[in-house]
Amino acid sequence: MAKILDGKAVASKLKEKQSENLGILNKLGKIPRLMALRVGEEKDDIAYESSVKKRCEKLGIKFSSTVLDKDIALSDFKSRIEEINADDSVDGVLPLNSGRKELSLAFSDMLDYKKDIDGFTDISKAGVFTNKKKGFPPCTARSCMEILDFYDIDVARKAVTVVGRSLVVGKPLSVMLLNRDATVTVCHSKTENISEIASSSEILILAVGKAGFATEEFFSSGQTVIDVGTNYIDGRVYGDADFESAEKIVGAITPVPGGVGTVTTAVLLTQLIEAAMSKTIK
Question: How far apart are the first and last CA of the chain?
Fold first, then answer.
């Protein structure tokens, strides 16, 4: 049976570092502030915002929420971003844009990258691709790296397959792995023989967004599987891997729930604190 790569243990380790860094900031009279910028009243957005708020309160981080009408004009949305950029008290912004593409594009184009704690802006993306400390990577991509590091899984010289090419996970994560000297193959919906490529890799990262996408033929003995998928069916959450099949074959795997998703919110607050430290400690 596979070793379970528990995300809770990773998140707990990150929280220890968060407390340490918050102590440093508090001595300097600084308390980080996170602003949620939410458009509309989508239940999932409200639930996520609430969970982040609770984590902030536990750590003593300031949290504020700006809620905009779901039909807000693009020009008004852009004006709000300009106001946030000018507000020195805001260290990081959590966007909840309800799927409006034009708002997401405006956010990525206009937000001050120093307040972009989830890798949305073009400058943050460039920082990932050039391997420079410019902005922050997407939280989910960094969460995968944090899990690998916590469990001492060295990616250097390893054959790694990333299934998925989104700007949130697949593309930035593949570059982050390359920056660690991994040999990376990226697969997507047009890739032929995905299962053969996947099963030949030493590390398999699944970021497809389809429950049970990776079946038995995707896996091999001793393989490490990082399952990024979060797919809701009848009130239950499933990963991109057929977990029961994978667990019998691979060497290690992240569970869903309790894996990557558990680490992602912890990474969000880690990057918020890092943003506050960069601004406060020159």
Answer: 49
Count of CA atoms in the C-beta half-sphere (13 A) of 169: 22
Residue 149 CA to residue 117 CA, distance in Å, equals 20
Question: Token pair 């250097």 is at which residue?
Answer: 156
Structural contact between residues 85 and 115, judged by C-beta atoms closer than 8 angstroms: yes
Q: Which of 176, 184, 177, 168 is nearest to 129 (CA)?
A: 176
Length of the chain (residues): 282
What confidence tens digit (pLDDT) does each residue in 133-182 have? 899 999 999 999 999 999 999 999 999 999 999 999 999 999 999 999 99
pLDDT > 80? residue 204: yes
Cβ atoms 248, 242 nearer than 8 A: no
The DSSP letter of residue 190 is T
| CA separation for the pair 167, 120 (Å, rounded) | 9
Query: How does residue 116 score in pLDDT terms, banded at 50, 70 and 90?
Result: very high
Domains for the chain: give ranges and CATH numbers.
29-112 (3.40.50.10860), 139-261 (3.40.50.720)
Task: Please choose, from the candidates 136, 121, 180, 130, the residue with its C-alpha nearest in 3D space to the C-alpha of residue 154.
Answer: 180
